[in-house]
Amino acid sequence: MSIIAPELVSRERVREAGRALAAESARFAGYGWMRGTGGNLSVVVERHPLLLAVTASGLDKSELTERDVVLVGEDGGSADPGDPRPPSAEAGLHAHIAARTGAEAVFHVHAIDAVIAGHRWPDGVEIRDLEMLKGIGHPAHDAVVRIPVIQNHQDMAVEAARFDEVYRTPTDEVPEVPALIVAGHGMYAWGGSISAARRHLEVGEWLLRYLVDVTG
Ligand SMILES: CSC[C@@H](O)[C@@H](O)C(=O)COP(=O)(O)O
Ligand SMILES: [Zn+2]
């Protein structure tokens, strides 16, 4: 379990995060990306120490309310002793991605195209010459963008280590790829705000859907 630190963030801040994530969740569920309780969303509410509001585990993601988030620390464990609900089983990877990339929001969905793409290209999905690449911060032409694929694991510490093996820190020349496929499972996308994470998720899924369809 994480260090207990609910006094570092107000209840209203957590409630506000819950409201925002419930709205995003309803949107993605409407796309069919969060069926059968699949998927989870988080937003950073404090950076030092790292605290995230993450969706509670096992809920139908199409009908979340502002109360359906749990405060977690950098290891993904609950940071609020007053809240008996378990955080998302995948909160540990959310926290790791937020810490490693500096993202303010991390979104995970079970979009079927991501699963098919991970199966078809287990060494990473290469994309080029598409206007929509600009939506994840890359030029439309003259570059190959690779969305990395890691193997699925139930232990988030293992998945975090696998993330570190494939994540490339952005440079002045090469922008970040703000998305990840977990084979046989789904995808993650993140960004510097909720709207950026949403854009990266929606554009990333569009790119994967295009590739899956055009090569199918
Ligand atoms: C069909 S739900 C599968 C879960 O194990 C998991 O992958 C998931 O995305 C949702 O888990 P949760 O703990 O509700 O956040
Ligand atoms: Zn999942």
UniProtKB/TrEMBL annotation:
Known cofactor(s): Zn(2+)
Positions of transmembrane segments: none
Binding-site positions, Zn(2+): 108, 110
Keyword Zinc: yes
UniProt remark on cofactor binding: Binds 1 zinc ion per subunit.
Taxonomic superkingdom: Bacteria
Catalytic function, reaction form: 5-(methylsulfanyl)-D-ribulose 1-phosphate = 5-methylsulfanyl-2,3-dioxopentyl phosphate + H2O
Keywords: Amino-acid biosynthesis, Lyase, Metal-binding, Methionine biosynthesis, Zinc
Enzyme Commission number(s) of this protein: 4.2.1.109
GO molecular function: methylthioribulose 1-phosphate dehydratase activity
Enzyme class: lyase
Keyword Metal-binding: yes
Pathway annotation: Amino-acid biosynthesis; L-methionine biosynthesis via salvage pathway; L-methionine from S-methyl-5-thio-alpha-D-ribose 1-phosphate: step 2/6
SUPFAM superfamilies the UniProt entry points to: AraD/HMP-PK domain-like
InterPro entries (UniProt xref): Aldolase_II/adducin_N, Aldolase_II/adducin_N_sf, MethylthioRu-1-P_deHdtase_MtnB
Domain Class II aldolase/adducin N-terminal, chain residue ranges per copy: 19-212
SMART domains with a match to the protein in the record: Aldolase_II
Function of the protein: Catalyzes the dehydration of methylthioribulose-1-phosphate (MTRu-1-P) into 2,3-diketo-5-methylthiopentyl-1-phosphate (DK-MTP-1-P).
Protein family according to the UniProt entry: Belongs to the aldolase class II family. MtnB subfamily.
Cited PANTHER family: METHYLTHIORIBULOSE-1-PHOSPHATE DEHYDRATASE (PTHR10640)
Protein name: Methylthioribulose-1-phosphate dehydratase
